[in-house]
Amino acid sequence: MISDVAQYLVTSLSLGGLYALMALGLIIVYGILKLINFAYGELVMVAGYGLLIFGRSPWPWIIVAILSVICAVIAALLMERIAFRPVRHASPTTMLITSFAVSALLQNLALLTISPRPQVPRLPSIFIRNLTFRGIRIDVLDLSGLIVSILALIALTVFLRRTVIGLSLRAAADDFTMTRLMGVRANMVIAAAFAISGFMAGIVALFWIGNARSTTPTIGLEPVLIAFIASVVGGMSSLKGAVVGGYVLGFLTIGLQTWLPQEVNAYRNAVLFGIVIVVLLLRPDGIIRPAYSREAR
Amino acid sequence: MSGSSFELKPLLARISTPAILASIVIVIAAIATLRNDIVFERVVTVMFIHLLLVVALQAFMGNSGLGSFGQYAFVLIGAYSSIWFSLSPDQKNLALPDMPQTWWLYEQHTSFLVAAVMGGLTALLVGGLLGIALVRLRGASFTIATFAFLIVIHSVALQWRQVTRGSRTVLGIPQYTTLWDAALWAIVAIVIVYAFKESTIGLKLRASREDEDAASSVGVNVKLMRWMAWSLSVFLSGFGGALWAHFIQQFSPQSFYLKETFLIIAMLVIGGSGSVSGATIGAIAVALSSEGMRQIENWWNLNRQTGTRVGEFLPFQLIGFTEIVIAISMILVLILRPTGIMAGRELRGPRRKSGGSGPKPELAVDGSNPVPEPNL
Amino acid sequence: MSLLEVADLHVRYGAIVAVRGVSLRVEEGEAVGLIGVNGAGKSTTMSAIMGVVKPERGSVVFAGESLVGVPPEAVIRKGLAPVMEGRRIFPTLTVEENLKIGAATVKDKEQIAADIEKWSTFFPVLKERLGKPAGTLSGGQQQMLAVARAMMSRPTMVLMDEPSLGLSPKLVGEIFDLIRQLRELGMSILLVEQNVRMTLDVVDRVYLLSTGKVDFEGTPAELRARGDVERAYLHGTSSATKPAVQ
Lengths: 297, 376, 246
What we know:
The structure holds three protein chains of three kinds.
Chain A: H1 2-33, H2 40-54, H3 61-84, H4 92-113, E1 130-133, E2 136-139, H5 140-162, H6 164-174, H7 176-181, H8 186-212, H9 221-234, H10 239-259, H11 262-265, H12 268-282
Antiparallel strand pairs in A: 1-2
Helix pairs in contact in A: 1-5, 1-6, 1-8, 1-9, 1-10, 2-3, 2-4, 2-8, 2-9, 3-8, 5-6, 5-8, 6-8, 9-10, 9-12
Chain B: H1 9-35, H2 38-64, H3 71-86, H4 89-95, H5 104-107, H6 112-134, H7 139-159, H8 161-164, H9 179-198, H10 200-210, H11 212-217, H12 222-248, H13 258-271, H14 276-306, H15 321-336
Helix pairs in contact in B: 1-2, 1-9, 2-9, 2-12, 2-13, 2-14, 3-6, 3-7, 3-12, 6-12, 9-12, 10-12, 13-14, 13-15, 14-15
Chain C: E1 4-13, E2 16-26, E3 31-35, H1 42-50, E4 57-62, E5 65-66, H2 72-75, E6 80-83, H3 95-102, H4 109-122, H5 124-128, H6 139-151, E7 157-161, H7 169-184, E8 188-193, H8 196-202, E9 205-210, E10 213-218, H9 220-225, H10 227-234
Parallel strand pairs in C: 3-8, 3-9, 6-7, 7-8
Antiparallel strand pairs in C: 1-2, 1-4, 4-5, 9-10
Helix pairs in contact in C: 3-6
């Protein structure tokens, strides 16, 4: 019983942490540009193929992982520079449609240049092991997901609070024009937001693909959908909300899987996206309001 | 608008656009018939159904200025609900084996046209109710909500085996939609949507796009008009789904998802969401050029597989090439010409100029709208 | 040569021409007022100087360099700092972080620390609240923060847009005292205001805008001498109209 609870906690915290990172990657860009980046999932895909390609090298896996995350960051920066910068001043709907096109483009590029079939990248063997601690069995993949997601959250918090770019990012989310009038370069802030977005997607990819054990051109779809739900539930306007939304969704997902019968779980997506619609209708700003005193600090 | 035939002008001006668009459809249908090439005929039929769907989407997006990613939810509803009616109980045993024989629906067996209308009405029932709630939303929230709805419908369709056969393909649907049926209904959709656009409701709705609060303050019920445009779009989408189902004959929930959504939105964006002509031209341009590219793909892959002399020089298999070209074109249009090919204008017939500036080309692109309508 | 010279400035928002041929100058160390009723084009002139809106025509020259086409983020580097209408502080950032971002163009960390100390001493209410989110400050405190933030870049000139807007009469007095103090520090100031009476007390020269044009230019004494202006602007019965629609 205790073992079950511990396992539930670890799995939920791990999944919730990854969901939180996904939502953060989406919201950090949205907060500044008001762009809901549909192509965010394809950054996960890019990192996934990074694992595949660099995995063929003799380098240790950790190097492969770092290079893959870097690939996602570069892809995010390129995406911004090529597709989103020219439509930066267009309506949010136009930007959303642009990101939809970018998503389709990247998926089909993967289809063309790699393969439509699932590819199995090199993953560390430790990912499939589990630890037993006082009779409690915990998967290494879950535990490492839990730890890495918390580390990434801490790193982001420190970055946003302690660095000039982090400060500029937070200021830009409050008032972009005023931030520019303070002498902060718009291109720099937006590029930084995309770089963070790519970083988050890259980190998520390591565990997402570690769990799926293969990568496909459409591997990014589910992560981006989860990021949507978590961000909408979390408020669309606050980083803290995105994190809360991610963890809530993580606990909910594992909870439903554990305790609800299979037939009900089959409708999970319908229920979750139904919730998204209801949340949007009830409060277009999401559940957590951007209260000044409680904002991501 | 200058012209001596003052009396005739409004009527001519009113019908010239749908007439031109209808003639384009008819000419293409005629060419397809004359070529007597089954594959090409299939391509054109599907194109006409897509054309209908793009025009349906334009009815909403072009007039309200809101983006919808949820159209294929209604195409799905229209496709499935039409086969509930068009299939006989015996056919249902085969196509929808999980539908309980005790159901009222199981006994139904109507003509194709009634079934297609039922498809549209079912979509309207679901979409109309959803629309009551959704019209409150603005901008990206609206788009995300419609996208969420697509996923809701998709996952319900995957699970509700009694009415959809779940994730498995429904087979054995009779083919009712012919090339000329598709052409006819595409033209009907063009006429309806154009009439809606030019109606008082359409005009007021487009005027409200700029400033909803200002429009509301002068007594324009923006939400009601938005709902009407949405309902029209939803009904036509469901109807289009029924046409498609009875042409393609087999499908699964996977046939109504992101790829399909992307294609329809690409057609509308490339053609220009501001006008019915934009929707029509976009659908035709994208469909025909995709077909061209698909032939290149096939030629390439065939040469490679059979190892012909050309094939040896082709390093990889060509998959996704068509979609890449569409996606790039779409991004380029959004960046360079956000109003699309037609830039919010309609195709109009030749006009007599009082100044005698000479005859206009047959398909004059009317510039009567000096300020191009904002995209979307 | 003047520090700031605006000549024949035209700004248009779609069909609406908000500014039609405004010319003005600010000398070094001078405080200049830009007054007029709502919609006279004051804030638009200011936004055009800061690069937030693009002028249709005309020139803006600051310290010998043209500012036309210069993006907003570059204007402050030339020594021109804004205090925008509505204060526009960053509500989720702390007071201290607001000051830090005001020094975004400053590389020297010690200078930033010294300036934070200097301006928070200048405004003791800010010093007490350095670690608090700026959104929790009162309107008057936010205005002081906006001014202090502008000072962090060590500008040669500050543009202030309606600093007294929405403040209680007591706070309005404090804000104008602050402007006086800034003048004494040698700061050049372009002050956009609706509170004409108070403005005339603190500026060297004044421009009166109406319907996007300069209606009057001169010293406060000269303006007071003009009876019609006195009636229209000092006693609140406005005869000016909305911006013209072409």
